[in-house]
Amino acid sequence: MKGLNKIGGVVKPGGASKSGKSGKAGERSFAPRGGLLELHHVVMRFGGVTAINGLDLTINAGEIFAVIGPNGAGKTTVFNVVTGVYQPTEGGVLFDGRRIDGSKRYQVTKAGIARTFQNIRLFHNMSAVENVMVGADAHHRTGFVSAGLGFPRHRKEEREGRETARRLLDFVGVAHRGDEAAKNLPYGDQRRLEIARALATRPKLLLLDEPAAGMNPAEKEALQGLIRRIRDTGVTVLLIEHDMRLVMGISDRVAVLDFGQKIAEGQPREVQNNPRVIEAYLGAPADAS
Amino acid sequence: MSSIEWAKKPVRKISEPVGSRLDALRHWWAVQRGPVRWSVYLLLTVVAFLLPHEDIGSFMSPHSDWQAILFYPIGGYILLAIGLNVVVGQAGLLDLGYVAFFAVGGYTMAILGKQYGWGFWEIIAVGVLLAALSGVLLGAPTLRLRGDYLAIVTLGFGEIIRIAATNTDSIGGPNGIAGIPHPPNLTDWEIPDTAFFQALDLEGLKPFTYGALDTRPYYYLMVIAIIGTIIFAKRLEHSRVGRSWAAIREDEDAAELMGVPTFKFKLAAFAIGAAFGGLAGVLYGSQATSIIPEDFPFILSATILAAVVLGGSGNIPGVMVGAFLIAWIPERVRGVGEYRILVFGAALVIMMALRPEGLLPSRQRKAELKEGTGGMGSLGAEVGGPGGAQVEGEVSK
Question: Could you give the number of structural domains in chain A?
Answer without folding.
Answer: 2
